[in-house]
Design brief:
The chain has a domain of 44 residues. Helices cover 43% and strands 0% of the residues.
Amino acid sequence: MGSHRGRLRRRGRGAHATPAEGEKEPLPDATSVTRITVNEPSLLDGLDTFGADLPDEEDDGYTPPPPPPLPRISKYAVLGVLAIIGGFVLFLFPSLLPADRGITTLLGFTAILAGFVTLIWRLRSGDDEEDDPDDGAVV
């Protein structure tokens, strides 16, 4: 029974208490993990040095060609976008014009519709592919 009291007293003194005479040292638990040392590199150290012994690649001297110039925006496309924006402004805030509220709303709706039709009218048709005789590479 005396050895049982020794264990209780030892536990009461803290987790890092030295064992009493004649007792074995306890196995490491979660509180004594700091005493374990590892001399091997970790996985992260291996990833940090991965490819460090490879020779550096020399620059091949390739410079990409300059990008093509941006296409010019047509005046009809600008007019269509401005008509849509102006139409929404008139449609949402009809008090901006000194006219009847119904007429201003109708003008806004008409401007939105006219801008939309202008932008659709400016689209290219997709039938250009039939005029091209080249079907690609010949095998």
